[in-house]
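Re: [ENG-882] Designed sequences occasionally contain unexpected residues at chain ends

Forwarding the minimal case from QA. Structure tokens:
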């Protein structure tokens, strides 16, 4: 099976970054919306498939199952040309390091793709929160089902557990995000490395499974997980007492909790993981071996 060696892979990644830097704002938003929704599809599938597993097979098998199904999102993004912020944390800076684009273009892509990812993720969070996460009850009203409870617990774990320990929680979230985008961009590099659809599929699947099963933090996935939990809590406040623990102590999850205790430190960690650990590493490791264009 044919593949692209590192000396060819690095300029191919940079050229992908150049292409992205030239997209108009509307395209960045539109493709960002689709990528946010695709990642949310993987997150929703992981939620559904992992519900109840830990009680029977243990927490390790639960995370393995969640990790096994989550990669559908990135596979769809890579094969259909959608725009994912965490991937752009590596691809566009790679082009800038090779002096094919300027750093202003990097920030431009990051900004508009990030916004598109948020809108797409929140849209899918709404779809799940009024759909599969609730069931009609005997009282004639929709009630949160077991899948919805899993979604609420995920949102609480991704915010309130960090909030409970303060600065140490922010530091933990930041480093989990570095680990996440280290693996996400390894997946993207492997997808570029492979020439066949099957090669791209497996190149993406294993690193993404590793990041999910390891418990790392992905800002775009959390753009889905957190709003889904918050929507369910706001529309079904009885779940607060049902879940108890940190959720009851905090009276729910606020928008400030979402951003301060997850999305901000996780976004920064994702940037470091993709830019420093992948883009910079591969550029400086192979720059003397790159073919002249």
């Amino acid at each position: 099976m044919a593949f692209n060696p590192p000396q060819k892979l690095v300029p191919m990644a940079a050229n992908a970054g150049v292409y992205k830097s030239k997209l108009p704002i509307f395209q960045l938003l539109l493709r960002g919306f689709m990528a946010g929704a695709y990642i949310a599809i993987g997150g929703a599938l992981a939620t559904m498939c992992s519900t109840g597993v830990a009680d029977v097979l243990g927490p390790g098998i639960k995370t393995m199952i969640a990790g096994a199904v989550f990669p559908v999102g990135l596979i769809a993004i890579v094969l259909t040309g959608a725009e994912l912020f965490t991937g752009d944390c590596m691809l566009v800076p790679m082009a800038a390091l090779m002096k094919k684009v300027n750093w202003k273009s990097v920030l431009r892509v990051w900004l508009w793709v990030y916004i598109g990812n948020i809108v797409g993720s929140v849209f899918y969070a709404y779809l799940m929160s009024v759909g599969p996460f609730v069931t009609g009850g005997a009282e004639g009203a929709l009630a949160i089902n077991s899948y919805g409870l899993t979604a609420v617990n995920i949102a609480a774990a991704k915010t309130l557990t960090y909030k409970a320990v303060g600065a140490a929680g922010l530091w933990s979230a930041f480093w989990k995000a570095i680990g996440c985008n280290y693996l996400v961009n390894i997946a993207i590099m492997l997808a570029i490395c492979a020439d066949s659809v099957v090669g791209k599929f497996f190149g993406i699947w294993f690193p993404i499974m590793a990041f999910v099963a390891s418990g790392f933090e992905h800002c775009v996935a959390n753009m889905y997980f957190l709003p889904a939990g918050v929507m369910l809590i706001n529309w079904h406040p009885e779940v607060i007492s049902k879940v108890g623990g940190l959720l009851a102590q905090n009276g729910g999850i606020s928008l400030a909790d979402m951003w301060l205790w997850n999305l901000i430190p996780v976004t920064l960690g994702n940037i470091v993981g993709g830019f420093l650990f992948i883009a910079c590493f591969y550029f400086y490791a192979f720059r003397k071996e790159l073919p002249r264009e």
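QA comment: On inspection the terminal residues look reasonable. The first strand starts at residue 134 and ends at 136. Proposing we downgrade this to a documentation issue.
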